[in-house]
Design brief:
Elements (H helix, E strand, L loop, with lengths): L2 H19 L25 H8 L3 E5 L9 H7 L4 E2 L8 E9 L5 E9 L7 E7 L6 H20 L35 E13 L3 E15 L3 E18 L8 E19 L4 E12 L4 E14 L9 E16 L9 E17 L2 E12 L2 E18 L2 E12 L12 H6 L8 E11 L29
Parallel strand pairs: 1-2, 1-3
Antiparallel strand pairs: 3-4, 4-5, 6-7, 7-8, 8-9, 9-10, 10-11, 11-12, 12-13, 13-14, 14-15, 15-16, 16-17
């Protein structure tokens, strides 16, 4: 008998013994107070308490992106008085968390609690606003607090209600008074500022890449006005060393691309549906063959739905028209070194975030008024649809008819510029698409968090027998 066979037989013999010595563990955490901590008066977990936990309401959490506060593992661990579901079709309550950037640069969460099955027809919506400098841990703890508050009315109608308590933290000293944005004493007058600097360096024997970017933005939002101002710059330099051959010496290929932009946006809210604004911009781009690009674009926008529903659904029509001035690095295919052109643009956009998933669609038309043949039509879609139990469909893509490339150089592009993607190439269309299907089956529960060996990835690592 080989050594490998003997080792495998020994492992098989030890498994039952080890399993017999392992202490019994409950299927899940015992129910506790609404704060997520076990109740001090709660008895030890037993058959009755496990049965009661199995009768807790079933919750499905619908949120996206940990950067937007969606830390599922934390919520599952922190909120232990419900059973977490993998699919919304198995849930009694669906939590739909939607995030938008608020006027101060933080995040405004709209959290909708949708009753299903026995709670059909029950629904509630709560709001949470965070500050731009709030730590991720603070954001997720605030979200957990709001989730608990919203779940209270559902838990109160479940068998587990007798084991749940609601805690209240009284304010210290004089009770604080709620004030609105209109009477806040803000030395910054609701302005928020942000700076961002990044550097990326990659070096090898025969190639190196250096990328640097710098940006600054200032924003102010009220119910009536939205003001944005931004300045940004990006420099990307790449070098490739081509080795010598028998027929030619070695040489180095260098590619440098620069982009600079200044933009300002002013928007006035006219009603619950109408808005008017103006965008002014200036830029420089090697990729677009532009030493100077100046834009002045007055615009008007109409939303079919009231803006109070913006986190759930939007159907907007945005129209802007105005002059554009371009000073080119190289003469264009139309014989221009600089030109002043009027352009107009109409964009129709639909956004919906519902129980069945997320859908974003937009159709954009742009043309220059001096020549309607110089135009572009672009359709963009982003859909994440939950079509059935465990089955979801994701579609992302765009299709464009391109006829507006008035900036293309008359001399064309060299092979080197094409390979390095130094400048835009002439094209009549652009298509990008990504279609994905996901099907998950098995246990309907999603209540256990286990991060052990996460650094090895879901596929694990290699296991080797070594004999001497």
């Amino acid at each position: 008998m080989s050594r490998l066979t003997r080792v495998l037989l020994l492992l098989v013999a030890l498994v039952p013994a080890l399993r017999a010595q392992a202490p019994a563990r409950p299927a899940g955490p015992p129910p506790g107070v609404m704060g997520g901590m076990p109740s001090a008066q709660a008895p030890a977990a037993g058959p009755d308490s496990l049965t009661l936990q199995s009768q807790a309401i079933r919750v499905f959490l619908d949120c996206q992106g940990r950067a937007r506060g969606c830390d599922r593992d934390f919520f599952v661990t922190e909120i232990n008085f419900v059973n977490w579901m993998r699919d919304r079709f198995d849930a009694d309550v669906q939590i739909l968390s939607q995030a938008l950037t608020n006027g101060g640069g933080g995040i405004e969460f709209t959290i909708t609690f949708i009753g299903r099955n026995t709670f059909q027809g029950m629904a509630d919506t709560l709001m949470l606003n965070t500050l731009p400098n709030d730590a991720d841990d603070k954001v997720r703890r605030e979200l957990a607090r709001v989730f608990k508050l919203g779940l209270t009315r559902f838990v109160a109608r479940s068998p587990i209600a007798t084991r749940v308590q609601v805690a209240y933290t009284a304010p210290f000293g004089v009770q604080r008074q709620q004030v609105g944005a209109a009477n806040l004493k803000d030395p910054w007058n609701l302005w928020t500022y942000s700076t961002n600097a990044n550097t990326f360096v990659r070096a090898e024997d025969r190639q190196q890449q250096i990328n640097g970017s710098l940006s600054f933005s200032a924003n102010r939002s009220t119910a009536d006005w939205k003001l944005n101002f931004s300045v940004s710059g990006n420099i990307n330099e790449s070098k490739f060393k081509i080795p010598a051959t028998a027929t030619r010496p070695g040489f180095t290929v260098t590619n440098e691309q620069r982009t600079y932009n200044i933009n300002s946006l002013t928007v006035r809210s006219l009603s619950t549906h109408w808005s008017a604004g103006m965008k002014i911009g200036a830029g420089y781009s090697d990729f677009l063959n532009q030493d100077v690009a100046l834009r002045f674009q007055p615009a008007v926008e109409y939303n079919v739905f009231p803006w109070t529903e913006q986190t759930r659904r939007q159907l907007t029509f945005l129209y802007n028209v105005g002059p554009n001035y371009y000073d080119y690095q190289r003469e264009t295919v139309y014989g221009e070194t600089s030109e002043l052109r009027l352009s107009q643009q109409l964009t129709a956009s639909f956004v919906s975030r519902q129980q069945w998933g997320t859908l974003n669609l937009s159709l954009d038309w742009l043309n220059y008024l001096h020549d309607f043949d110089r135009h572009a039509l672009t359709f963009t879609s982003n859909a994440d649809l939950r079509l059935g139990r465990g089955f979801s469909l994701n579609i992302n893509g765009s299709a464009a008819r391109v006829r507006d490339q008035i900036y293309l150089p008359a001399a064309g592009n060299t092979e080197e510029e094409i390979l390095l993607q130094r400048q835009a190439l002439q094209t009549g269309f652009r298509i990008t698409t990504n279609i994905g299907v996901r099907y998950t089956f098995g246990s309907i529960y999603n209540t256990i968090v286990n991060q052990r060996f996460s650094s090895l990835g879901s596929s694990g690592g290699r296991f080797q027998f070594m004999f001497f």
